[in-house]
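We modelled the chain as a single entity of 194 amino acids. Its sequence is:
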Amino acid sequence: MHRHRHPVTDHTVPVGDVVVLLGAPGSGKTTVGEELARRGLRWREWELWVLERWGSRDAFVAQKAAALPALHQAMRTWIAEPGPPAAIESTGLSDAAFLDALGHEHRCLVVRLDVAEAEALARVATRARGRHLSDALDGARTVWQAFHEVVVPHRPVDLAIDTARLPPAHTAALVAGMVSRRAQPPPAPGARRR
């Protein structure tokens, strides 16, 4: 577990801290993000932002060389705004370099949301249409496989949660509790623990 502090605003209050919800399609990132927002963290659906700005997944992909840096810059600007910790979602695939940089710019709590392939695809098949860059099952399967081959073995995380076993509200409560504990100042040297 590695923790980084923002080089300019180094303090124990977690303003500027970032929760990274890392997972394959269908792992529950958006649902957990919404639950975190109910618990006072900042949350934004960036896939909707992409669809509003570029119109479609295909248009975003066609202009990816410019579109991805623009998305990352918009996210950085939003994360840097004053307020409670921000929560973002990522597969950790095309965002790998961005996540690496974010870990140097902010103190990140990286939470991997795990789900079996069959459960992930069932969720993708039944989720609300138009909220994600793609709802295609073949694409979700390809990304799920890449996530487990590339991200799971190599991306360090602070916490891994099986979202088939822990409901979104409980997952969010656990994550919000970790954020809150990180905000507490460390005990003074020689102080007794309760």
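As a brief sanity check on the tokenised model: Residues 18-183 form a domain with the Rossmann fold fold (CATH 3.40.50.300). The mean pLDDT is 83.
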